[in-house]
Model the fold of this input.
Amino acid sequence: MYRIDAAERRRRIGVRHHLAGRAVAGDLVRVAGDLVGIHATDPASVYLGLRTRVRSLTREQLGTALYEDRSLLKILGMRRTMFVVPVALAGVIHAAVTTALGEGERKRLLGMLEGAGITTDPARWLAKVEAETVEALHELGAATAADLTKRVAGLREQITFGAGRKWQGTVGVSTRLLFLLATEGRIIRGRPKGTWLSSLYRWAPMDRWVEGGLEPWPPERARIELVRRWLAAFGPGTRRDVQWWTGWTVARTKAALEGAGAVEVDLADGSDGAATGFALPDDLEPTSEPDSWVALLPALDTTTMAWADRGFYLCDHARALFDRNGNAGPSIWFDGRIVGGWAHRPSGEVVMRLLEDVGRPEQRAIEAEAGRVERWLGTDRVVPRFRTPTEQELVA
Done:
């Protein structure tokens, strides 16, 4: 069995994730593809993550790619999470992951409609409301959920959940139905209503946003292609890594790894509690040592969230830099390892906390990068959607 140790995996992060000096790219679409999508649950993560990896990137350039050229799409993907991906990759993810989410979401919504007493024939009722919604959206071209509820009466219905429990509440049919239509690839999130930090999006018909809609892929072939891309970007990794990242069952994960021709490798130092990983058969040679590098990556960054087994780059910093649900906060990286965290104060100051002694030259490089992030953000204020202990303490 071929051996790939933690040092090699860290070198691959610097080079393949466009973080080490000469690996920083000039093409943001290429970077999004190389990373199998940019984590987009938190709008700021897309901009800050690509800023680090794309030379001289401006917010305007990314906005153009997302909302005018539409060379990048914001879609629902792995683990019910938003990702920004190139158009060609969107079809792969939709067939490999999202279609199955849509099947479950439709069944769930039908049960909720009947359980809430909205209708005794949920399939017929839902078919009517979704047809009216799609028709209104085609007529308007793009619209927020609030715009659509003014046009479609059924979207204004409220579904009660958790009756008698502490978490009892209500959710609008508009929220559930628009999510369903997105998982089915019929609509897509378009330009936000507000600034680049806004989470309120206008919805648009998919076939208008992308000519001809998403490229159709057979699900099994799409799953193999997605694993191949994951291994090229993040491999080697454990089977648990792949299953967690995709949200698949064990059986689907095993089948996709076999279909991709993945080979077992020895992770050598067992830093993740698992000695066996997987890599592509033509991807076993060592990576040339890149120049030393530092990076301030945002909350929920694609690199930070790429693996379930994180020991080889996270060491003992999980409690400080992740929340209780496993969501990563803003992190400081040095040569393929997380060595601290950072935060953005209301004053606009970027502040840091190193959790390891990295040496004075490296500390100066980290401070210089913090200054660049601060200037790039300007007067805008970034607050992560999921707060972590270190980020909260630094802001306070």
About this structure: The CA atoms of residues 181 and 187 lie 6 Å apart. The mean pLDDT is 95. The two ends are 50 Å apart (CA to CA). DSSP finds 16 helices and 14 strands in the chain.
